[in-house]
């Protein structure tokens, strides 16, 4: 007799692939082919996980048709089944998967649209935290300003795409918005939680460089150097003021020589 | 910390995301609500709404992801998330399922069937004890809906549930629709099943609709929670009340989710069956 663990291994393989004869032999027929009984479970797993992906990637779903989406989702679920019961977290690697999926090659912007949708999905679930109080920065000595490191608020993300993915996304929220010219150029986007919703903002390339450098953990001094490489004529005071006004970070620390 | 459920009006509703805002706006009279715990573990925005609901309604947490029947160890990260949610929400009831869904690091998003053997019993008992110890409270364990049974099962499901109660002190959540669906699909006697459960352990009843699917010329009942409770399940509910006494009841509706008022009306229908059962029980006691 198979152990419980062996039975479950076979069952898992049968749900994500084909039913093993060994598993079929364990199941009472009760008037129906055991494979048909197993198929009821398999059907539920794929239908519900496909619906989970559709809910997180509604624009990707509209850019392809329902059948094609189900086909892609089927392949994704087999290769990347969920690792956690919290399905709000399921789908983070779907954009990358789309980029490597041969049948999606004719829609080269699809993976970046999916990246944008995942960022929106994450931002929508983020906690509503109090933003950094700019008055607190008043206590920082001018000599230490360059050493400031900011902690981003949860749900913040930056995305650079060679495609106008924000316009593509907007064209699928509101029917009056036309689908953009796909050659309209790159998008430099900031996504984050806003009140009870999500904001999606297009930034100047140098502003994105500056903010995403801070987001990745660089100090204020390092982030300014990064942005200056893109555009030496930037208004740095305005850059910092705009960053503080947009409530993007929840706290800060001062990096000392030792690196803390 | 246990908020008690008002037993004069018993039927609560399974609360799903699309009804949350309307419930908070309208505050309809409903004695309690139940949510799936997993929907509030990673989603801070949803949790904030749930805390607001908790201030107005007794709230039960119904877990679908602990996988009590997995042969391997429990997912401790998941158990910690559940424990934190329980601490923050202070639910009136915490329940889970007699099933498994995790295997080899993969979560299969379904309440999968178990062979009912002494080996399985040891695994599930150990996991229930671990959960109850971590949460510091008794949980209810729900009977699954089944589409198959294993040849090597050596005891009936109702007896298996009774053994879980005996070994762990857990309570039971009797899903009457699941009893009906399983009885139909794998040839059990639904009434004998109810009679086989330890009545005093049943702390909650679930009701839901099911679909009828034709599979190779055989009809299978699919527990899809996507329609009104069927007449046969209402009849079985009445029998369950006669057997278990006045047990808080919950109506679940998870696919093709209707307007909130339709769900509330279904809960009121459960109330009227419940009231009738109580009246007749009262008459029987008075005689």
Give the H and E element order of chain B.
EHEHEHEEEHEHEHHEEEHEH
Q: Based on DSSP secondary structure assignment, what is the total number of beta strands of chain B? A: 12
Count, helices of chain B: 9
When the domains of chain A are counted, the total is 2
Q: Low-confidence segments of chain B, ≥5 residues, pLDDT <50?
A: none
Radius of gyration of CA atoms of chain A, rounded to a whole number: 24 Å
Question: What is the strand tally of chain A?
Answer: 5
**What is the level-2 CATH architecture name of the largest domain in chain A?**
Alpha-Beta Complex
Give the % helix of chain B. Answer: 40-55%
Describe this structure in words.
The complex is a heterodimer of chains A (260) and B (287). Chain A is mainly alpha-helical. Chain A has helices at 4-16, 21-24, 34-56, 58-63, 66-79, 94-100, 110-124, 165-171, 205-215, 220-230, 236-245; strands at 148-152, 157-161, 187-194, 197-202, 249-254. Chain A has 2 domains: 1-107, no CATH class; 129-260, Outer Surface Protein A, domain 3 (Alpha-Beta Complex). Chain A has a 3-stranded antiparallel sheet with strand order 2-3-4, with helices on both faces. In chain A, a hairpin with a 2-residue loop joins β3 (187-194) and β4 (197-202). With 287 residues, chain B is of the alpha/beta class. Chain B has a single domain, classed as TIM Barrel (Alpha-Beta Barrel). Chain B has an 8-stranded parallel β-barrel. In chain B, strands 5-6 form a two-stranded antiparallel sheet. In chain B, α7 (190-196) packs parallel to α8. Chain B is globular and about 50 Å long. The interface between A and B is large, with 49 and 55 residues.
